[in-house]
Specification:
The complex is a heterodimer of chains A (737) and B (267).
Chain A: E1 3-4, H1 19-35, H2 56-79, H3 93-105, H4 114-142, H5 150-180, H6 192-228, H7 232-242, H8 248-275, H9 280-290, H10 321-329, H11 335-339, H12 341-344, H13 351-374, H14 394-398, H15 405-409, H16 416-430, H17 436-448, E2 478-481, H18 483-488, H19 493-506, E3 510-511, H20 522-527, H21 530-546, E4 551-554, H22 557-566, E5 575-578, H23 579-588, E6 600-604, H24 618-626, E7 630-633, H25 662-672, E8 677-680, H26 683-696, E9 705-708, H27 709-718
Parallel strand pairs in A: 1-7, 2-3, 2-4, 4-5, 6-7, 6-8, 8-9
Helix pairs in contact in A: 1-5, 2-8, 2-10, 3-9, 4-5, 5-6, 6-7, 6-8, 9-10, 19-27, 23-24, 25-26
Chain B: E1 2-6, E2 9-11, E3 21-23, E4 28-30, E5 37-39, H1 41-57, E6 61-67, H2 73-82, E7 86-90, H3 100-114, E8 119-123, H4 134-142, E9 146-156, E10 159-166, E11 169-176, E12 179-183, H5 195-203, E13 207-209, H6 222-225, H7 250-263
Parallel strand pairs in B: 1-6, 1-8, 6-7, 7-13, 8-12, 9-12
Antiparallel strand pairs in B: 2-5, 3-4, 9-10, 10-11
Helix pairs in contact in B: 2-5, 3-4
Classes of the chains: A mainly alpha (737), B alpha/beta (267).
The structure holds iron/sulfur cluster (2 copies).
One iron/sulfur cluster (SF4) is lined by residues 339-342, 349, 351, 400-406, 416-417 of chain A.
Amino acid sequence: MSVESPAEGRPRRLVGGWWTPAVGTSVLGLYGAFQLESSEGLVRHSFFNDVAPPGAVYLLLAALVGLLVYGFMRHASLWMIGQPHHQSMLRDVPQRMRNAMRLGLAQDKVRRDRYAGLMHWCIFSSIIVLTFVTAQVALNDDLQLNFLRGNYLLFFRFYGDLFGLIGLIGVGMALNRRYFQDYHRMRWDERLEDHLIIFGLGLILLTGFFTQTMRILVEWIPAHEDWARYAFVSYGFAKFVELFDFTEGQILSAHRFMWWGHVGLAFSWLGLIVFSRLDHMFFAPINAFFLRTDSPGRLARIENIEEREVFGVGQVQDFTWKQLFELDACVRCGRCTEVCPANIAGQPLSPMHLIMDLKAHLSAVGPSVQHAGHTGGDTRAVSPVAMVGDVIKDETLWACRTCFACVQECPVMIEHVPTIVDMRRFLVMDEARIPATAQQALENLETRGHPWRGTSLERTSWMEGLGEVPIFDGSQEYLYWVGCSGSLVERNLPVTRAVFRLLRESGSTFGVLGQEETCNGDPARRLGNEYLYQILAEQLVQTFKEKNVQRVITNCPHCFNTFKNEYPQFDGNFEVLHHTEFLSGALKDGSLQATHRVDASVTYHDSCYLGRANGVFDAPREILELVPGATLTEMRRSMSKGLCCGAGGGNMWQEEVGERRVNHVRTEEAVGTGAQQVISNCPFCIQMFEDGVPAIQPEEEGRIRPFDIAELLEQSVFGPGGGEAAQPVTSTAGAPD
Amino acid sequence: MHLVVCAKQIPDPETPPSAFKIDPAKNEVIPAPGIALVLSQFDGIAAEAALRIKEAAGDTKITVISMGAESAQQAIKQVLAMGADEGVLLQDPAFDKGDPHTTAKVLTAAIKKLGDVDAVFCGRQAADWDWGVAGILIAEGLGWPVSIIAKGVTLEDGKVRVQRVIEDGYETVDLPLPAVVTVSNEFGEPRYPKLQQIMQAARKTVTTWKAADLGLDPGEVGAAGARLKLERLYVPEKEGKAEIMQGDTPAEQAQQLVAKLQAAKIL
Ligand code: SF4
Ligand code: SF4
């Protein structure tokens, strides 16, 4: 098999690739500086041109620090109206430190958009290095340490200019994206501060250069022009200014003007941290430290649910402090919204706006809530608007697929999914406001133990004609968990049968629960009915324990995620494999042989809960690689950037509102690869494609056909006609009516 | 006001036919693990109708009564969670294997025992046997007016105004109180209970009344009192047959088809 267009980058080192050219250049500069014959007598003259009374800058600094502390306290007091967070920040500290370094300082996520990543790195590294430069000047001049002398001073000049230039390049890239490319995300929520920040930074850098230019002109060029060249940018400016024959007095006045301009702008700009999204320079690494250390696929368990008065998040103070902190960390970059399937399909959800709306709401009512809390008032009576319903609309919450695309992209590590689900919990459990079809799915779960209203199948229907199907009794190694979709939705029966036949062929011992399977509760949890979820989960954990289940194989990524990540919350610890993992392992250790050619061009769709939530990207691709004859063409959005099929987060059971349907968008992308088959690993994805294909390709001739990867492998293992996938698939019975 | 909702727990009507097994000797459905017991869907709608009246009128008590096995507590709790105030389970072996008449007799006795009832709401029919007569028989037992298959129920000047579904639309009738109304699916979906209410309902105790509590003689209820005799209970055989019309031209095939249909007295 051949793979075209690999989609993911390689793992990166701590301080990734873009430092390399800068550090390399600096080393060259350092080398150059120390090659100089003699820089004896080269010292930095403190207080050149007597621009300011000593101490003036420190007054400004003190004011700035005061402002920062005040701003921080004001924010912090609002976070404190939140509830305790589910994960203690004192646990997993080494991992949290690593996250802060990797995601906060090295900005791994920022770089997922290469242009913005480079731009941000330029600005970020420039600010860090120039702050370091400024600090050295302060130490040197004010404490009279006089270490800025000789060759080091030349090197110091060099890298100061280098990073000033890098900063200007970053600013240029930012200006280009905002004003010339007219890049779409820039306009989604543009504010005055955005212009101030970027122009301010540009001016700070320029005035810095100009200050130095004037100084070079008066102090360096006349004395030692070869030394001046190390400040290569300022030197260039100086040569240009020389063309104009200014007097020394004029140049010194200009120096003074530029110096004050530089200092004034720099302090004002830093003051903006308190009032603008510049605060991300602190909040982003802190939020990286706060980032969950468990799987993103796990939703928090509501403890002692029977004793609570409010079950979900209906008011801003119901969020945890970390969720409130996140609101402040958002930089309005729009990356989340750009990748959000609901947004792409023109549905009423933009995760960025959701976060910004919550943030505005927090600022609006937070202080009064806090006040009510202090004075013993009723905090729940404070807000004049309903956060869930007015500020955040019901349909916005229901449109979410819990697909983690937003979480994956957010450069400041905001976790939108738990925040959205918490508000859904309020809608369902506190308010009982649910879209009718979703309600039917929940009621069905309650009464029938599965979400598929109106199915005419039984949990054992798929077994027909397969010979003896072993029932799990504790003696087998694996429990093969078929799941509701695998047994009650017509389209998925061939998948279940394929997995079953492959398991049997592999020689491993396994059994199924058959009639005894009940829903593990995932749809209830994602739809916000945590209470129902807990009942179902507790029951099933009990059943698993009674039957002595140790290892589970599932053919549904949602069951997989639930067992693997969520059942430990109910003391259910099992080893869980998705069938793609098991099958790729079996192919590799030779217990399965993909011997028959399956000549087909395929594209592969990563389901959100196998992919982003659990990081299983390679196992299915390994299977495809081992199927002789199959050629894979990746879609533009694949692996961790994959687009949801549209069914996640309980949307399988909802009517979609908006311009398009998500599955149509995704089907279009699959069709766009020109592949004959779109291969997935999830019963929901398959159903969504089955539904989307006729809409995108009305002509039956040459349609792309959706298959589970097990169906493809079945053909390769058992030969042509040996797989059921060879037969045309007719219906998708069981879909919401 | 005091409203009564009659609720029945039935085997899930959405059970796939293949899971549905019948014991021909006993003329009984064999309970199978795949068959859930659920609140008859129309009774949920009847409860919704009563709740909307309660919301509009205020100061109203809703009592839900159900005749059935111990498991019918579940159906009662479901209506309690929706917002009903009290629940009564009518449970006695003597009630078993009755017919609509004996069921209505038991329910009527219970409503009489409750005393101050202003209106009774039933589903248009129980979704298991689909008789659709219990409501009418209760009205007869109580001597109250009845309107059936309602798509809308409101309270207007001390009367119940019912929009009654008829073949080509609906008609509006006013019933003086007390009255019995049977509610149809056109009324709308029953509400989804809030969790707080589910928990409150779970804590409520359901009163149980036996035949003796209702002053009923075991000989007049259940199998003993039934006037209806079940002859045979069976799952109908479904048969599908396909026949391809022979003929050289479409016209010939069509003629053949017409002939066949006429022979089968379809045309
Ligand atoms: S989880 Fe997916 S659907 Fe939900 S807001 Fe994020 S990107 Fe959008
Ligand atoms: S939530 Fe994250 S990705 Fe979305 S706009 Fe805010 S910072 Fe950007």
